[in-house]
Write a structure and sequence with these properties.
about 20% strand, binds zinc ion, 4 strands
């Protein structure tokens, strides 16, 4: 039996990998603003004949009945009330 072989190459395992890995998980959620704020009095709005409220054409309340499309300037002339949801002004 020749077990005199000394394993001297027992290197200390260097754990010097202290790299601070800053993981920036930025939630890049691009919120697409559908409401393009067009500062234009000739913007087409949808006015409710009963409530006199006028909405942007993209407003969900614009799809209700008793509405008609007019321009924003017309809606103001007719004492229309700007919708607080879509804010057509
Ligand atoms: Zn509205």
């Amino acid at each position: 039996m020749f077990n005199n072989i000394k394993f001297l190459d027992s290197k200390p395992i260097e754990t010097t990998t202290e790299e601070i890995t800053e993981i920036n998980t930025e939630m890049v959620t691009e919120v697409q603003t559908e409401s393009s704020n067009i500062e234009n009095n000739d913007m087409i709005v949808v006015i409710n004949n009963l409530t006199k409220k006028y909405h942007k054409t993209t407003c969900r309340y614009a799809k209700s009945q008793n509405t008609r499309k007019i321009t924003l300037s017309e809606a103001k002339e007719q004492d229309g009330i700007a919708c607080l949801v879509c804010k057509p002004e």
